[in-house]
Amino acid sequence: MTIRLGIAGGNRGGSFERSLASLEEEIELVAVCDPSDEVLRGWIDKRSGLEAFSNFEDLIESPNIDAVFVATPMPFHAAQSMMALNAGKHVLSEVIAATTLDECYALVETVEQTGMTYMMAENYCYRREAMMIKNMTDSHAFGDLTYAEGAYIHDCRDLMFDSNLARTWRGGSWGKSGDQKTHSSRGNGYPTHSLGPIAQWLGINRSDRLTLTTTFVTSSLARRDWALSVLPEGHIDATEDAWSDFTDSATTLIQTEKGRVICLRKDSASPRPHNMALHSLQGTKGAYISGRHTDEDPLVWINGISTGVSPANFGYKDMARPPELSDARGAEWQPLWELSNQYEHPYWKEYGSEATKAGHGGGDYFIMRDFALAVSGKIDPPIDVYDAATWSSVFPISMENVNRMGEPLKIPDFRKNR
Ligand SMILES: NC(=O)c1ccc[n+]([C@@H]2O[C@H](COP(=O)([O-])OP(=O)(O)OC[C@H]3O[C@@H](n4cnc5c(N)ncnc54)[C@H](O)[C@@H]3O)[C@@H](O)[C@H]2O)c1
């Protein structure tokens, strides 16, 4: 079965072209939708057979498509996904899936009622190191997991304005005019890149669940300084006050039902080089830390596999060291890739070379491939609507945490009506 796909949102949708080229048997791109004539023209010039729509409602009414990739600005994802599902189309939604708790609940209900396939396109879960760690957590290599950290730190300040110097959705155009906050508001506005891989390692919504959370945010000084330095004098946003509803950096803590703790950071304003995967994981038998920058290898130390023993294995100060450890060295980190013979994820073993041709460390390839497998009924969506709602709900809850000066709040169990 070849799925006939329509892309809504021609910019991000365009980054999937390389993935689609490798998946021609599974997915055929037949339509694109974007209100911008310029964006549509760019697509048609490259692919003359495409149906072009400037209106989302027309796209989802087309009998020529089976599925929609919702790659529009974040505040549209939930409403457009629900419209598409109700029109009988399968949906792959860009992150985050929803920006309010009401939207999270409604999205879950719509998927349950329509029975259509829904998947969230959290590509960070499919990066090589993330999948290898998943393989290792599935085989209990780190022992019982206790703690994880994730961060999405990406200076996106230049994306807050368009070429006419009007605010884009990343600049909070929705947040200022309505009650829908976005991306850089005072909360964790983009939690799924950091949380997604961790949720999969910890079995969230499978064997554990997120229960309680709080978030603290910084002022938005880097954002303000940037705006004051680049915007022309007299521009409405070239003032100290314009950025008071925003944050540079948000830190979220989450407790799980099994007593694990997750710490997330989201920062889309602070000046520094971008590196995509910032994660760490602690278990009772070992630990994982991703590289601090793109040239540094991810590292692991696993008791019994890696070199050395953890300091506590040397015993108390006055206790004799066990004879078998008398010559043992202290624990030493080793590059994760040294364990690839044993733990490389089967996806990366088989399709790694195809995946690396696509964007975002291979994630964009595997997202499309798994979506095709899910639509054709061969697998359940690996990032289903319950994951999408749970991970995305951190955003609206985090804003409420901030409003309540850090009071911890419950994370709903979106699976309870299932
Ligand atoms: N997963 C990732 O790594 C990743 C990377 C980049 C962007 N994204 C996500 O993809 C989405 C789009 O991001 P972007 O950078 O392309 O944003 P963008 O603002 O640059 O582009 C959005 C596009 O959507 C179009 N659009 C606006 N309203 C529309 C509508 N009603 N119907 C159809 N098209 C519409 C716009 O004309 C524009 O071409 C965002 O949600 C973002 O979070 C994810």
How are the SSEs placed, and which strands pair?
Layout: E1 3-8, H1 10-14, H2 17-22, E2 27-33, H3 37-46, E3 51-53, H4 56-61, E4 67-70, H5 77-86, E5 90-93, H6 101-114, E6 118-120, H7 128-138, E7 145-153, H8 173-177, H9 192-202, E8 210-217, H10 221-230, E9 249-256, E10 261-267, E11 278-283, E12 286-289, E13 299-302, E14 334-335, H11 340-343, H12 346-357, H13 363-375, H14 385-403, E15 409-410
Parallel strand pairs: 1-2, 1-4, 2-3, 4-5, 5-6, 7-10
Antiparallel strand pairs: 7-11, 8-9, 8-15, 9-10, 11-12, 12-13, 13-14
Structure, described:
With 418 residues, the protein is α/β, with parallel strands linked by helices. It folds into 2 domains: 3-122, 3-Layer(aba) Sandwich (Rossmann fold), CATH 3.40.50; 125-345 and 384-410, Dihydrodipicolinate Reductase, domain 2 (2-Layer Sandwich), CATH 3.30.360.10. The chain is 33% helix and 18% strand. The strands form 2 sheets. A 9-stranded mixed beta sheet has the order 14-13-12-11-7-10-9-8-15. Helix 5 (77-86) packs parallel to helix 6 and helix 9 (192-202) crosses helix 14. It is globular. The model has no long low-confidence stretch (mean pLDDT 93). The structure holds nicotinamide-adenine-dinucleotide. Nicotinamide-adenine-dinucleotide binds at residues 8-12, 33-36, 39, 56, 71-74, 76, 94-95, 123, 168-169, 360.
